[in-house]
Give the backbone structure.
Amino acid sequence: MSRAYGGDAGAVASADQLKAAMRRWATGVAVVTMRSESELRGVTVNSFAFVLLDPPLILVCLNRWVRTHHALLATRRFCVNLLSEDQRALSDRFTERRLVDDFSGINHQFSAGVAPILDAGLTWLDCKLVDTHAAGDYTIFIGLVLQAHIGGEGTPLLHQAGNYHTLADGDRTAGK
Ligand SMILES: Cc1cc2nc3c(=O)[nH]c(=O)nc-3n(C[C@H](O)[C@H](O)[C@H](O)COP(=O)(O)O)c2cc1C
């Protein structure tokens, strides 16, 4: 356990307990993209959360050891691409550790903040990094949303218990 937490807390949940509990939790899947110096980078996350409407804030948590952690601190501009159910391959691609994180073969454009936007996603948020909080091996990045793209039709890619899922047909309410 990180020394910053739990020092005086007494009994805390074991990793196994917490892991078992969190397997019940379902999330969407997003790719956080950025341009760091001349390189384009992306990382798959499910720690994305909406925080507040006014000011418009979101958060993502990144492990300190993923390469995009360093890149995000350096560039402070990023795009959160929310994936649609037919983008599992993109999710997998951005979990791979690449020496050079090239976007070759991946259709994309650029936001005003010059972060890459993945084509055919559900929607995207162009963000500026405004705050960070250390949490053990992770950093919580708080982003101010500069532009929220309103996507078209489409349903989200979901993740739960280590697997991808899609919404049941009766629950498809996107765009309504
Ligand atoms: C569905 C899913 C969600 C993930 N969510 C996160 C996350 O929220 N934060 C994180 O640091 N890593 C997350 N990961 C792991 C990273 O995608 C992976 O470790 C990363 O791409 C490592 O590559 P890099 O070091 O080259 O950046 C997730 C992986 C998957 C498959």
